[in-house]
Design goal:
6 helices, alpha+beta, 15 strands, 308 residues, 13-stranded mixed sheet
Amino acid sequence: MMVLKKIKLKNARKLNNPEMKRGITFSLLCLIFFLFFFACSGSFFFGDKKHDSLLFIDAKYECNWNITFISDTIETTKGAQNGFILQIGNNLSYGFGYRDYDWDALYWTVEGVNSIIESFENGTRSTFIDSDIVSAKLYKDYKEKKIDVVDNISGHFFIYEDYLMSQNWIIQDDTMTIAGYRCQKGISHWRGRDWVAWFTPEIPIGDGPWKFYGLPGLIIKLYDTKHHYDFELVEFKEIVEKIDIQPLSTKNIKVLWKTVKLTNIERKKFLQMKFGIQGNTIMNMDMAPIGIQTDWVPKKYGYIELDY
């Protein structure tokens, strides 16, 4: 029998790191551009809240992991804490990032936007510069054994298909109690990193954060052996909500008050674009109307997947 336990979220941390503070200025420019771009072109996740049975499916459970990651692998500087939410239905799960608050709700009002800007200025929130690992929206199709990933480069939105498969886990005898659950250890080498997962058979759901999948129980704690990325479950609960699958059926996404067409792309090509000079070129083209240009600087941290 599945036992539900809830764990309170950890408090947001102050960002006193000078590198992070420099990122805040860039983040504010991104925020200003983001709102300007979509005010002109009519886009960002907003739109029709009607629950068409063909475009929404029921979610039964929600998992919430805290993420801590290295923002500079040269200086091994820990980045701000972000998070990842997974909503689970019968045949599909939907994963997406969050920043200790609901972006969608805040973007609906002027007061909400002001609160975002204020939180950047006083250093209590994460910055956009740290958002690459949680910018994607992942739809895991249990039946078709595939993952549809929706992500963006500046104001341009893409969709690519990935495999839903076990990371060839090797289950070990080690056990540990984490957040009140009795967990067992699994290890894997996947896409350039060595991973350690602690999963619990007490929650017989073979899913986890990001694209991790295939263990005989929910992943409670997950990290790579260099601790560049650490995930830890902070909440698991039953819910009665709808998962929006419009991007899968229509290949469109609602962004503010307009529908935007998703561009199909291959996974490695997208990652090469996003983290290379081409992504910076796309952003500069989008930002040119408001007179903002940035020089391309190679990222000082490795993406969660290193095989592109």
